[in-house]
From TrEMBL:
It comes from the Bacteria. Pfam families: MPI_cupin_dom (PF21621). The keyword Transferase does not apply. InterPro entries: MPI_cupin_dom (IPR049071), RmlC-like_jellyroll (IPR014710), RmlC_Cupin_sf (IPR011051). Keywords: Plasmid. Residues 79-150 form the Mannose-6-phosphate isomerase cupin domain. Signal peptide: none annotated. The keyword Transcription does not apply. This is Phosphohexomutase.
Amino acid sequence: MLAAEFTGGYPSFGFAENTDDLFVGKTLLHGDVLMWLMKTLLTSGCTNQRGAGQIHCTIFSPTASASLRMLPEQHAAEARYPIPVEDFHFSIFTAVNNQTVMTSSAEIVLVIEGTATLSHASGESLLLHVGLSAFIPASIGRWLLTTRGRFRLRAK
């Protein structure tokens, strides 16, 4: 059973062990909270019910598969993808040797293919194999990348 709890004026939900947990203080859940919960369940696809308004407001038209894929901007061995959000970007490096990477925000790196070595001027280095990732804090600044294969860089 789903229970609601009020924190800062907004309901937060968890699972209730029994019906006594459905009470907030000494009062029953407010009707607005129940309506909000019903709307959330319907619009999130948790039920098979669909509102007629959802269908009438949606335009179903085919999209060419070529327009679904973003094409990267090539910069030497780095393919930068034009993400339409200012605080997020990602790029893919292919076979680089001691490529300088400048970090101005937190980054997550992932080896897609082969291996990658991340090195810092402090002498610290990290070897990553395919499927492994690492978090690079914004305070690192400049670091070096050597890859054999493909390497993905995601930054905030």
